[in-house]
Backbone:
C-alpha cells in the first residue's frame, strides 16, 4: 500500500507529496511540529499535543493554519488513510512560502501544513524496553528556547548521531552548570536509591514533554515522590533507575549512561511499571 501524506489541503500519494523549494521551513527551519502516538488506530493525547503546537506557533508568530479541531481531524484522517494501527503521526506547520529573505514576509502568507503517519513495530519497541537503552552525555549546544517545538533540530541530529556512533540510543545534554537538561528527542529521568523520581523542571531549556506531563499523573496515582529539579550526570550514574520519555518511546528504561551500568544494569521495576500503566492515564481520541 502506498503511503499517503496530507499537504496543504490534499491527501496525496507520498511520492507526489511535495513542498515548494521556497518554503521557509525548508529554507530557514522556520516551522514547528508535533509527533503523536497512534495506538489501536487512535490518537494518544492529541489535545495536549495540539495545545503545545498552538503555543509554539504563537511564540514564533506563525499563523495558525486552521482550528485545533480541524488539525486533529486531518491527523485522524491521515492515520486512517495510511491504515496505521500502532505507530506515529507527524504534523508540521511552517510559516509558508516566500522569496528567500530572513525577515518575516511583509505580505501575509499562508502557513504550510504537512501530516504523515506510519506504523511502527510494537514488538521491536517492546524488545527495546525489555533490554533498556544506553545513553551518552553531551554538552548542551542548543538555543535557549527549546521549549518551542521547532523543526530546527540540527544539534539534536548531531547528538543522536554521536550516541549511535558510541553504541548508545540517546544523548542527554549537560548544560553549563553541569546539569542534565534533556535528551535529544526525549525527557530525562532518574530514580534515586531511596525512591525519589527526579526530572528537570520545565522552563526555556527543555521541551515540556506531553509524556512527561501525563507521567506526573501516573506517579501521583502510584504515590511515588516526584522532584522536579535539575540533576547531574554523577547523580544519574548513582541512581537506582533511569529512563526517558517521549511520545514515540513512552517510558523507555535506561540501563547505561556513559558506559556505566545503572542499578543492576537491567531495566528497573519502577520504570517497567510506569510504562505498563501509562496508557491508563493518557487521553485517547
Ligand atoms: N525533548 C525533546 C528534545 C523532544 O524532541 C521530545 C520529543 O520529541 C521530548 C522531549 C518528549 O516530548 P513528548 O513527550 O511530548 O514526545
Residues:
Amino acid at each position: 500500500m502506498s503511503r499517503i501524506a496530507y499537504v496543504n489541503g490534499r491527501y496525496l500519494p507520498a511520492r507526489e507529496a511535495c513542498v515548494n523549494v521556497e518554503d521557509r521551513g525548508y529554507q530557514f527551519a522556520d516551522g514547528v511540529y508535533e509527533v503523536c502516538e497512534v495506538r489501536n488506530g487512535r490518537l494518544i493525547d492529541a489535545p495536549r499535543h495540539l495545545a503545545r503546537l498552538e503555543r509554539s506557533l504563537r511564540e514564533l508568530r506563525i499563523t495558525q493554519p486552521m482550528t485545533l479541531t480541524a488539525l486533529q481531524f486531518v491527523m485522524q484522517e491521515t492515520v486512517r488513510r495510511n491504515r496505521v494501527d500502532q505507530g506515529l503521526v507527524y504534523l508540521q506547520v511552517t510559516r509558508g512560502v516566500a522569496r528567500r529573505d530572513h525577515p518575516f514576509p511583509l505580505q501575509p502568507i499562508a502557513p504550510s501544513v504537512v501530516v504523515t503517519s506510519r506504523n511502527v513495530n510494537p514488538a521491536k519497541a517492546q524488545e527495546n524496553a525489555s533490554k533498556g537503552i544506553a545513553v551518552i552525555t553531551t554538552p548542551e549546544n542548543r538555543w535557549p528556547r527549546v521549549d518551542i517545538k521547532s523543526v530546527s533540530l540540527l544539534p539534536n541530529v548531531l547528538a543522536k548521531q554521536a550516541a549511535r556512533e558510541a553504541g548508545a540510543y540517546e544523548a542527554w545534554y549537560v548544560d553549563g552548570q553541569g546539569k542534565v537538561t534533556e535528551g535529544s528527542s526525549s525527557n530525562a529521568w532518574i530514580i534515586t536509591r531511596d525512591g525519589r523520581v527526579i526530572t528537570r523542571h520545565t522552563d526555556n531549556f527543555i521541551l515540556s514533554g506531553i509524556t512527561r506531563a501525563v507521567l506526573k499523573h501516573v506517579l501521583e496515582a502510584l504515590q511515588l515522590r516526584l522532584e522536579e529539579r535539575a540533576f547531574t550526570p554523577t547523580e544519574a550514574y548513582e541512581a537506582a533507575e533511569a529512563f526517558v520519555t517521549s511520545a514515540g518511546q513512552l517510558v523507555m528504561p535506561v540501563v547505561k549512561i556513559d558506559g556505566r551500568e545503572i542499578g543492576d544494569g537491567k531495566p528497573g521495576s519502577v520504570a517497567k511499571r510506569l510504562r505498563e500503566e501509562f496508557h491508563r492515564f493518557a487521553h485517547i481520541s
